[in-house]
Design goal:
With 295 residues, this protein is α/β, with parallel strands linked by helices. The chain folds into 2 domains: 248 residues, von Willebrand factor, type A domain (Rossmann fold, 3-Layer(aba) Sandwich); 35 residues, no CATH class. A 6-stranded mixed β-sheet has the order 5-4-3-6-7-10, with helices on both faces. It has a two-stranded antiparallel ribbon with strand order 1-2. α3 links the parallel β3 and β4. It is globular and about 75 Å long. It starts with a helix and ends with a helix. The mean pLDDT is 83.
C-alpha cells in the first residue's frame, strides 16, 4: 500500500470514528471510565449531604466527630488496545474481514480515549509481540495508533493471548483499562492470564465473530482449514448433517471462550462482522453504568 493511500484510509477512518464518538459514544465512555480511578486527597467534617460510606472511622474516633474521606478524580486514564492480528483475522464472509472490524473497533476506542484527554497505548500480537506503543495522549498519537494497525504485516500466524497479557503486565506500572480485541480462537487456555490481568487492571474482552464461523450454508462435505496452523477439519455427511456438525463444533468453541471470560470475571463485548458494531458498545456502557450505580 502506498503511503498516500494509507494516509487517506487513516483519515477516512478518523472522520467516521470521530462522528460516532461525538454523537454516541463519547459521553457514555466518560461516564463509565472517568471517575473509576480516584486518588485520596484529604479528610473533612461530615455534612448531611455526604455519603455515609465515605466516613473515615479511624479519624472519626480520634476527633470525636464524623469525618469523611475526600477524593479527587484522576486527571487521565491509561487505555491499552491489545489487538490480535493473527491469521484467523483475515477471514471475512462479507465486505470486511475480522481484522478490518478489529481496526474500526480499535479506532473507536482510541478516539474515545483521546477525546477525553486519556493516554492510549497499543499492543499488536500474534503468537509473538508484533508491536508495542507506549501510552500517550493527543490526536497525533491516536492517528499513529490507527496507522500502525492498518499497516501491520505480522510475522507470526498463531495466537498467544497468554504471552500478550504477560507482556502488558510487565510493561504497565499504572492501573489501566485494557481492551483485548480478538476472536479468542486459541488452543491454549488463557483463563489464568485473564484473571491476573483483570485483578491488576480493568480488562474488557472485545470478541470479533464472523457469521459463517457460527453457521455455514448447507452444502456437501465441509472441509475447514485453520488459517493459523493449517490443521484440516472435515465435517461429512449430507449438506444439512455437515452444517449441523460444523455448527455444533463452532458453537462449542465460542462457548468455551465466553465461559473463560465469565469465570475470569472479564466483561465481554461481541462484535459480529456485517452488523452495527456500535450497539454492542452502547449495551456494554449501559451495563457498566448500572454496576456503578449498584443497579
Amino acid at each position: 500500500m502506498l503511503p498516500k493511500e494509507l494516509i487517506a484510509k487513516v483519515r477516512k477512518i478518523e472522520i467516521k470514528t470521530r462522528r460516532i464518538v461525538d454523537e454516541i459514544t463519547g459521553g457514555a465512555y466518560h461516564s463509565v471510565f472517568k471517575g473509576r480511578g480516584i486518588e485520596f486527597d484529604e479528610v473533612r467534617e461530615y455534612t448531611p449531604e455526604d455519603d455515609v460510606r465515605d466516613i473515615d472511622w479511624n479519624v472519626t474516633a480520634r476527633m470525636g466527630a464524623p469525618y469523611i474521606k475526600k477524593y479527587v478524580e484522576e486527571r487521565e486514564l491509561t487505555v491499552i488496545l491489545a489487538v490480535d492480528i493473527s491469521a484467523s483475522g483475515l477471514f471475512g464472509s462479507g465486505e470486511k474481514s475480522k481484522k478490518q472490524h478489529a481496526i474500526e473497533t480499535a479506532a473507536l476506542l482510541a478516539f474515545s480515549a483521546i477525546r477525553n484527554n486519556d493516554k492510549v497505548g497499543l499492543l499488536l500480537f500474534t503468537d509473538k509481540t508484533e508491536l508495542y506503543l507506549s501510552p500517550r495522549s493527543g490526536r497525533t498519537h491516536g492517528l499513529r495508533v490507527i496507522r500502525e494497525l492498518m499497516a501491520a504485516e505480522p510475522k507470526g500466524r498463531g495466537t498467544d493471548i497468554n504471552g500478550a497479557l504477560e507482556k502488558l503486565m510487565r510493561m504497565l506500572t499504572k492501573k489501566s483499562v485494557i481492551f483485548l480485541i480478538s476472536d479468542l480462537i486459541e488452543d491454549e487456555n488463557y483463563e489464568t492470564a485473564l484473571k491476573i490481568a483483570n485483578k491488576r487492571h480493568d480488562l474488557i474482552s472485545v470478541r470479533i465473530l464472523d457469521p459463517l464461523e457460527i453457521k455455514w450454508p448447507e452444502t456437501a462435505d465441509l472441509i475447514v482449514e485453520d488459517a493459523e496452523n493449517g490443521r484440516i477439519s472435515m465435517f461429512g455427511g449430507s449438506g444439512r448433517a455437515a452444517c449441523s456438525a460444523y455448527a455444533d463444533f463452532s458453537i462449542d468453541m465460542h462457548r468455551k471462550s465466553a465461559d473463560i471470560c465469565k469465570r475470569a470475571k472479564v466483561d465481554m463485548i461481541d462484535i459480529r462482522c456485517g452488523e452495527d458494531f456500535i450497539k454492542p458498545f452502547i449495551l456494554f456502557f449501559k451495563r457498566r453504568q448500572g454496576k456503578i450505580r449498584g443497579i
